[in-house]
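Researcher: Next sequence.
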Amino acid sequence: MNRPIIGGRIDERFLIHRLRSTGIAGSAAAALALGLFLWHDLVDKVVHWDLFAIGAAFVVVKLAVLAWYQWMH
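Model: Next structure:
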């Protein structure tokens, strides 16, 4: 794949590393959102439903995609 902005050829290894790093970053962000939700709930006694919604959305989408890949293959 030739990207004029980067100025070189991008091979499959770069794309695989980008895919893995994006997946890890998404998982870390969801874990952080759920961790902050639990922290505010247990320590501050305040429930932030937006943090819960972010973490729950990640879990639902992740399980749905896993089920879809399992069903398709």
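Model: The chain is about 80% helix and 5% strand. The CA atoms of residues 1 and 12 lie 9 Å apart.
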